[in-house]
Sequence to fold (356 residues):
Amino acid sequence: MKIAILPGDGIGTEIVAEAVKVLKVLGLNFEMETALVGGAAYEAHGHPLPDATLKLAKEADAVLFGAVGDWKYDTLDRPLRPEQAILGLRKNLGLFANFRPAICYEQLVDASSLKPELIAGLDILIIRELTGDIYFGQPRGRRTAVDGHFPGSEEAFDTMRYSRPEIERIAHVAFQAAQKRSKRVTSVDKANVLETFQFWKDVVTEVGTQYPDVALDHMYVDNAAMQLVKAPKKFDVVVTGNMFGDILSDEAAMLTGSIGMLPSASLNSSNQGLYEPSHGSAPDIAGKGIANPLATILSAAMMLRFSLNQPQAADRIEAAVKGVLSQGLRTTDIYSAGCTRVGTAQMGDAVVKALA
Ligand code: IPM
Ligand code: MG
Fold:
């Protein structure tokens, strides 16, 4: 089994180092190979997703990814920005199904900005379509090259589009995930305004007839954003497009108190996957040794379960994470009075110790 390790930028290198520590003590036989991605790759090779990095990712059974991006790259031409690395990996590996669980750990109910009774026991699964929508439709802007030139313009646009097969396959993923949970799917759209999402709603409804055991309901995205803070526990599996999924998954993550806790998995049709924390590169705290590595460590657990067929190892990691939380260890982002504040490496070491 081969794992491509792509730490990326900002806190990415710090948190991935802790996840690698954890993977190494499991006593499993992985080959791990590290490569540059994002701004770090741009600095070294002039491109955020060098060919060698893409090749490594394609050959590997799974990719463990940190985070990419820094404000200092905001003025680069779009194809050279760090974010293009993750978008390129998603597209090139066909990682269309993005799982973003939002789970509230009982030890962390007080870390949420919502009242504890609203989020205690919260366990939502956001399934975001990841290779279509306005993210990958035809763009045009000041920095879009036409015949090698950047013509500049007083207009810019991006194109929202979905095809039937793209919607069908993500709908199947959602219904099948729901069959293993509480058998409810909420499909989030904007069918009242957008043709793309009327089509989305129609196709999801059609696919739903193949899953009579799963209850399907539809919700407009604005209402979903509101219901998520009003009564988040009413949701179970949420399926939505790339753009709405980007926004709603950050919102859902924060309900749980810390985006620093939440892993994610992006899978293709052969269960090859990219695993990354739901949070970003956090340049403001990079290099300080205070970032929370738990989302990345939990992403490594998802990797073991979904792509590497090691469910027991995944269970062990998840139990170890709960263990360190029960010991009262907290990085700054999840700290509350009476707990012990620890840094990134101390948190990683504590998980390693709990595993032993
Ligand atoms: C995410 C991020 C990415 C996205 C960025 C970094 C391109 O926000 O994974 O949610 O928009 O998909
Ligand atoms: Mg996002």
